[in-house]
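This section describes the prediction task in plain terms. A model, or a person checking by hand, is given the sequence of a single protein chain and must write out its three-dimensional structure as a string of tokens. No templates, partner chains or ligands are provided. The sample shown here is typical of the held-out split.
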Amino acid sequence: MSPQYQEPPQSPLFHAQNAERYERQQLIRDYEGFFNCRLIVMIDAIFHDSVTMLGELIYDCDPSVALHLMINSPGGLGEVAVRLARSAQSRCSELTVIIPDQAKSAATLLALGGHRIVMAPASDLGPIDPQFFDGQGWVAAKDIIAAVEDAILRVQESPETYPIHVSLLSGVTATMVQQARSALGSTESLLIQALQSNPDRFGDEVDRLTQSLRGPLIEGPQSHTALFGAEDARKSGLPVQIVAPDSPQWKMLWRLWTKYFAVGLSRSIYESNSVSQVFDRTYPPEG
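The expected answer:
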């Protein structure tokens, strides 16, 4: 009996134009079959529309099946990250967050809501201090407050430098400073809410992890770019699985990750075995 040729459901030209997309989705299906789970991919900064975009990926998830979320993100809005963790947890039996490269700031909060965090030696989390987007890039709330306090001190010591500091801080308003202070004050609350997003994590464990993570993720870092790698996370008590680079799981994940790297990490990508959204991110004024 001769083999049967099976036509792709798409037209030949459309299939050719989107071949890379279909190749990534096939790798996702291969991983799902091998690890008996649902795999979704999020490569983006975390903003309000991320709730809908992630919801599109999990709308048909079987809540009795494990969900693996591969994420690469510079961060974004902490409150939204907690909502994403809660949303993902509501659609699966167990949530595993996979970090092939980095999940910084708000993305770290999202990772804290998982049952397990899969990392390799080079994977990185980071401080969860709030950020503000000033139209050109992200500015840490800590840096805004520190710059203003330093300027006040210098002007007190040398009043003649007042015009210089006014010029240097021309883009900083009193409202922005107050927002930065308020955001910093709510950081520990967001940490607790993120940890509580895991429905199988209870009071004592939440308290223990809060105490362990407060220093390295909130109080200690002098820079928003501070590293918090796999070993740091594991020593802090997080459920981290450090996978060997030569393991079958990491080889499959890395092959998929490099496909996204080739697309360009400046683009926003939300993908599953049946959904694919790839677009250029327009940043909002707030961070």
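For orientation: The domain at 12-130+186-280 is CATH 3.90.226.10 (2-enoyl-CoA Hydratase; Chain A, domain 1).
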